[in-house]
Amino acid sequence: MARRIAEGLHVDGVQVNVINGNVDRLSLQGDDLCNDDNYVSNRFPDNTNWRQGEDLYQLLTDGNYIASGTTLANFLWVMGYSTLKPNQIAPIMWLKTKMQLRVMLDGALAKQIGSGQLKVVDMERLVPKCFVGKDGQPYSLTKPKEEYSADMDRLKEFFDTKTED
Q: I want to staple 139 with a disulfide (CB 3.0 to 4.6 A). Which of 8, 75, 99, 131 is the partner?
């Protein structure tokens, strides 16, 4: 038994590595990160830049990227800008293109992706749990491609100015 633990134990998608009797690493493997209903998977990882979250919410509501009924508290929770869980949690209704959603998420989650806290594939897996389309159906992301529009320009400009701060 001790040899099995020292080599690492893999149970139901959880990998535990023990060195000298101490847990060295505990991680979820494969799809378990996003598909386990017991795991908090209706939000993105924590982002400590609460002010950016407020500014992004303002841009998205003013520009009709998200439904007007989306509350600030729900948006901040789902996007990881706040750890204060609102009473009512709902997926965010995205009203623009899937490519614009990808650009928004890439910008909003750049810190988490850059630090390795979030992998792009995990971001893509979380999108259907965090965003719905106009029809209320879970949203998914498209492959990265170029899109030219005023709405896309506003998103890119928002994140360009935030990286200069």
A: 131
Crossing angle between the packed helical segments 98-108 and 50-62, to the nearest 10 degrees:
160
Q: With helix as H, strand as E and coil as C, how does the chain read? A: CHHHHHHCEEECCEEEEEECCEEEEEEECCCHHHHCCCCCCCCCCCCCCHHHHHHHHHHHHHCCCECCCCCHHHHHHHCCCCCCCCCCCCCEEECCCHHHHHHHHHHHCHHHHHHCCCCHHHHHHHHHHHEECCCCCECCCCCCCCCCCHHHHHHHHHHHHHHHC
Tokens of 67: 């439904």
Residue 163 is predicted with a pLDDT of 59
Contact 70, 102 (CB under 8 A): no
149 pLDDT higher than 70: yes
- What integer pLDDT is reported at residue 17 of this predicted model? 44
Residue 78: pLDDT band with limits 50, 70, 90: very high
Instruction: Count CB neighbours of 99 within 10 A.
Output: 19
